[in-house]
Amino acid sequence: MKISTQETDRLAQVVAIASGRDPKRLRLSAAEGYLLSRIDGRTPWRLLREIGGIPAQDVDACLDRWLAEGVVEVVGGAPRPAAVVSAPKASPPIPCPIDPKLLDPNLDIDCDVQRRILEFELSLSRPYHELLGVPVGADAKVVKRAYFKLSKEFHPDRYFRRQIGPYNQRLERIFKKVLEAHEILSDPELCQVVTQTEALVAEAVDPIVSPVVPSAAPTSKPAAAEAQSTPSTHTPQPEAKPLSKLDRLRQRMPFKIDHAAMAARRTRALEIFRAAESSLEAGRIHEAEAGIRIAITFDPTRAEFKEALGALRIRAAGDRATKLLATPSDRMSEAELRDALQLIEDVLPYRPHDPELNARAAQVCLQLEMYDDAVEFAQTLLEGAPEIAGHHSLLGRIERAKGDLKAAKKAFGDALELDPDDLEARRAIASMRIAAHDAAQGGRR
Amino acid sequence: MSRVIGIDLGTTNSCVAVIENGQPTVIPNAGGYKTTPSMFGISQDGKRLVGHLAKRQAITNARNTIYASKRLIGRRFDDPEVQKSIDLCPFEIVRGPNEDPRIKIGGKSFTCPEIAGIVLREMKRVAEEYLSETVQEAVITVPAYFNDAQRQCTKDAGKIAGLEVLRIINEPTAAALAYGMSRVGDEKIAVYDLGGGTFDISILEMSDGVIEVLATSGNTFLGGEDLDRRIVQHLVDWFQENSGLDLRGDTMALQRLKDAAEKAKCDLSLRDSVEINLPFIASDAEGPRHLNYELSRESLETLVGDIIEGTLKSVEQCCVDAGVQVGEIDQVVLVGGQTRMPLVQKRVSEFFGKRPHKGVNPDEVVALGAAVQAAMLLDNNNDMLLLDVTPLSLGIGTFGGHFARLIERNTTVPVSKGHVFTTTRDDQSAVKIRVLQGESDLAAENDLLGEFVLSGIRPAPKGEPEIEVSFDIDANGIVSVSARDLSTGKEQSITVSSTGKLSETEIDQIIQEHDLYEVQLKG
Fold first, then answer.
1. Dihedral, CA of residue B289, residue B87, residue B90 and residue B221, to nearest 10
2. Which of A213, B24, B390, B464 could form a disulfide with B368 if both were Cys (CB 3.0 to 4.6 A apart)?
3. With helix as H, strand as E and coil as C, how does B66-115 read?
C-alpha cells in the first residue's frame, strides 16, 4: 500500500459543481447521485471517499470522470505539506522537551537511556510508520527488522529485576505501541485502513491544511476531532490534554474503525427505515416495526428511528387495547383472562392512565382472585378519575371479595356520595349490613 | 548472587541445566544420568522415593508409585482427560475439595502441584549437589498448549519446591533458544516436540539475537506414552487371544507390560525387531503363563501411524497461524525422546521437505533453553531477547453464549487490547464481564478465568451505552481486565488469578510438611 505524493495532493483537493453545468441532466446511478449531492465546494476529496458506503476507488473513478467531463472543478485545497504523509528518515530525531526532573540517577538505568525512553514515550502518538522509523509502504521484512530493533531497546525483559522505578511502566507502554505498529504495518489490509484514518486525523487537527471543515459532511468525526484540538497539537503533551472519546478510541484501536463500513451501514439503515415507513403507511404495522428494529440495529445512533419505533409501539398498543376491550371479560375462560392480563400489562406502559384499560385490568384481576393487583389497578383508576362513582364501586367490590369489609364499605360509601342512585353500591351496602347483623346475631347465640 | 537453573519438568523425565562459562550445561544426577524420571512413590515401609529410586520399585509397588502426573496438573477432576487417566493408571485418583484431581498413595492424598513440587525439589537438589551452592531461582518449562491454570499450578509447584520461578516458558520456545543461541542471521525455524506426554509445535523467527514466536499449537494429551499404551493394548489383546487370560485388571502385570512396551519402542528405533519376554506374567489353574512376543518395527509403525499423522495436522495448523509457507521454514528442530523414532523423523522430513537439525539432544535441549532464558533475563550484558506469545485466545462471553476474542492466541506479550461493547436490553444498568480463555466460539466451551460486574450504567435504550473492555497482559503473563462505561467514566477491573489453584496458606503447609520429610531422610 503506497500513497504517492501526487495522490496525497489529490485527496486534499476540494471540488465543486462546475458553474454553468446542470447536474440534473446527467444520467447517474443512485450511488453516483448520492455522491454528487455531497459535492458542496467545501468537502475535500478525502472525505468524499468516506461517505455513503461507496468504495473509495469508485469515488475516485467517478470524480475523475466528472473532472474530465467538466461536471465538477477543483476549487481549493492547498497541496499538503510533505511532512505529514511522506516518508520520514529512519530513526527520526525527536525534538521533544522532556522534564529533567524525571531523570533519576539513582535508578539502575543510565540517564541517557532514561532520556531516550522519555523522548520516545512522548512521541508515541506519531503515525505507525514514523514510530517504527520505516517509509510508508515498507515491505514486511523492513517492518520486522525495525520492530526487532526497537524491541531490543524497549522490551521490559531487557531490564528484568532491575530497579528502574517508573520506567518499567514506560517501557511496557512503549513496547505495546511498537507491537501494535508492527502488527498493523505488516498486515496490508489493516495498514490501508489505518493510513487513511491517520491522514484524516492529520487533516482534522491541522488547521493549515484544512481551512474549511465540512459541516454538512455525513461523517462528523473529523469535525469533532478538530473541535477538541488546539493549535499546539504539534508538541504532544499526552498528560496535559484530556483526549476526546473518539481520539482515545482511535489511539487504542485505530484499526477497529472502518469508516467505509460504518457509512455503508448507516446508508443501509436509512434505506430499511424508508421501506418501513411505507409499510406503515400501507397499514402493515408488524412489518413496519420489524423494519424499524433492523434499522436501529444497523444504526443505533439515529434518534429519529427510535422515536418512530416508540410512536409505532404506542399505536400498536392502542390497536390491541381497542380489540381487547371489545370483548367483555366476564365471558372469558381463565386462560383467556390470563392472556388478557398479559396483554394489558404489555399495553399499559404506553397508556398508563387509560381508565378503560385500568378498569379492565382490575376487573380481570378480581376474576382471577389476584386481589392486591386488582386494588392497585383500581387505585390507579381512581387517581385518574376520582369523580366517577362506578370506579369507587369497583374498588368496593374488590375489597369486599378480598374480605376487607371496612375498606369496602368506605369505597361503596364514596360511590353513593358521588351518585346516590348507584344501584350496585346501594345493594352492596345493604347486603353487607344484613351480613354484619347476622354475624352479630350468630355471635350472641 | 546464586545461580539460576533451568528445569524441564517433563511428563516422564525431568532435566536440569545451568549456564557455566557462558555455555548451557546439563547437570547429571548422583547416578550419572542426565535425566531423572518424574516419578514419586511411597515404599511399603513408608519411605518417600523420587526419581530413579521411585522408578526402580514401580513394578512391585505400582499402586503407590505416581507417574505422568503432569497430565493431570491444573485440570478439573471432571475433565475427560483426567477420567481417561483414572481408567489407565494403577494409582488411585480422587476428587479434591476444589474439584481438582488428587492422587492417593500410601494412605495420603497429594495435589498435582505437590507432586510436581516434589520432582522439582529433587531437580533442585541435583543442581545444588553439583554446584555446591544453594539454588533459589529457576525458569521452568511447560508445554506450549498449557492454559493459564496449568501454568499457575506449575508455578505453585516451584514454590512448594522452594524455588522462585522467574518465568514459565514454553518447551518448544526453550528448545529454539538453545538452538538459536549460537546462530546469527535470519532464520525461520520449526520446533517439533513429541515428548512423553505432550505434543507441541512452534514456529519461530530469529534475527539478530531477537527470537520471536510466530505461532504455537499442539496437544497436551498426546505423546510417547500413547504409543506405549497402544503397544500394551496390543500385547494384552494378543495374550487374551492366545491364552484366554485377561490382564487388564492386574496392575502389576500392566506395569510390567508398560515397562516392556517402552523398552521395546526405544529398541525399535535402532533395530528392526525385538522380542518381548515376560515370564510368569499370569497364572491360572494350569500353572504359570509366560508372555513371549516378537514385535517388528513395521508392526509398531502400523500400530501408531495415525498418532504421528495426527501431529502433522497440528503442524499444518501452526504454519497457517504463523502465516508461513511450509517451504519457508529454514530449519526443523526435533525435541523429545519420541522423535528418535525413525517413523517420526521420516514423516517430519517428508512434511517439511528437509532433514531435521541434528545438532541438539532431544532430551536435554529444553532444559538447556530454560537455562539460556534465565541468563537472558538476568545478565545485563546479554544481547538476546525472546518475544514470547500467549498460547490461547482471551476474550469475554457475550450475549447468546458467544465468545468475543480480544487477544488472539499467539499474540506477543506484553500487550493491551480493547473493544467497545454495549447492552442487550433497554435500561440495562449492569453488565457482567466473564473473562474466558480458549479457542471455541462458544463461551461455555472455554475456560472461565474470572468474572466481575460493571454496574451503574446510565439508563438508555439497548445498544446505546458504550462499554470499553480492555485486556492487558504484562511481560510476566499476568492478565488484567478492565471495563469502563465511556459516558460516566465508571470503571471496574480484575487481575486474573486462575481458579482451583492452591492458596498461599496451603502452599506454606505443604512446604512445612516436606521440610519435615527432608530432615527425616537426611537423619
1. 110
2. B24
3. ECCHHHCCCCCCCCHHHHHHHHHCCCEEEECCCCCEEEEECCEEEEHHHH
Q: Which residue of B has its CA nearest to A296?
A: B463
Query: Is A329-444 in CATH node 2.170.150.20?
Result: no
Core vs surface per residue B99-125: b (16+ CB within 10 A) or e:
ebbbbebbeebbbbbbbbbbbbbbbbb
CA B222 to chain centre: 11
- Copy the grid coordinates of residue B365: 535441549
Domains and CATH numbers, chain B: 4-183+359-384+506-522 (3.30.420.40), 224-301 (3.90.640.10), 394-489 (2.60.34.10)
Contacts of B420 in chain A (CB under 8 A): 249, 256
DSSP-based three-state secondary structure for A36? helix
pLDDT average, residue stretch A317-343:
75
Please list, residue by residue across A246-281, b when 16 or more beta carbons sit within 10 angstroms of its beta carbon and e when fewer do: ebebbebbbbebebbebbbbbbebbebbebbeebbe
Cα atoms in the 13 Å half-sphere on the side-chain side of B348:
28
Question: Smallest Cβ distance to B385: which of A144, A155, A256?
Answer: A155
Using the Cβ of A125 and the Cβ atoms of chain B, whether some distance falls under 8 Å is answered with no
Question: Nearest to residue A132, comparing CAs of A163, A198, A87, A169?
Answer: A87
**Is A163 at the interface with chain B, CB within 8 A?**
no
Look at A144 and B386 and tell me if their CB atoms are within 8 Å: no
Tell me which residues of chain B, numbers 91 to 130, contact chain A at a CB-CB cutoff of 8 Å: none
Question: How many other CB atoms sit within 10 Å of the CB of residue A325?
Answer: 16
Q: Are A156 and B470 within 8 A, CB to CB? A: no
Max CA separation in chain B (angstroms): 85
**A252 neighbourhood in chain B, CB within 8 Å:** 416, 418, 468, 470
Indicate where chain A has its CATH 1.25.40.10 domain(s): 329-444
Nearest CB among B415, B416, B475 relative to A157 is that of B475
DSSP A367-381: HTT-HHHHHHHHHHH
> What is the ipTM score, two decimals?
0.83
Identify which of B205, B417, B475 has the shortest CB distance to residue A156: B475
Distance from CA of B481 to the nearest CA of A (A): 15
pLDDT for position B40: 95
Where are the domain boundaries for CATH 1.10.287.110 in chain A?
85-186
Cα pseudo-dihedral A409, A412, A413, A419, rounded to 10: -170
Contact with chain B for residue A324, Cβ under 8 A: no
Active site members of B: 8, 70, 171, 193
- Per-residue pLDDT of A245-297, as tens digits, reads 555 444 444 334 455 666 777 777 888 888 888 888 887 777 788 788 778 77
Please give the model's pTM, rounded to 2 decimal places. Answer: 0.64
pLDDT at position B397 over 80: yes
Q: Which chain A residues touch B377 with a CB distance below 8 Å?
A: 157, 160-161
Closest C-alpha among B216, B186, B229 to residue B85: B229
| pLDDT, average across residues B184-202 | 87
Find cell 469475554 and name the residue: B396
- A136-140, B60-64, B497-501: which has the highest mean pLDDT? B60-64
Tell me what percent of the residues of chain A surpass a pLDDT of 70. Answer: 73
CA A240 – CA B517 distance, rounded (Å): 60
Where do runs of H (alpha helix) occur along A282-329? 285-298, 303-326
Size of interface A-B (CB pairs under 8 A): 64
Worst-scoring range by mean pLDDT, A155-164, B99-108, B156-165, B505-514?
B505-514
Q: What CATH number does domain A85-186 carry, 3.40.50.2300, 3.40.120.10, 2.30.130.10, 1.10.287.110?
A: 1.10.287.110
Listed by number, the residues of chain B in 198-227 with a beta carbon closer than 8 Å to a beta carbon of chain A are 205, 207-210, 212
Q: Look at A151 and B377 and tell me if their CB atoms are within 8 Å.
A: no
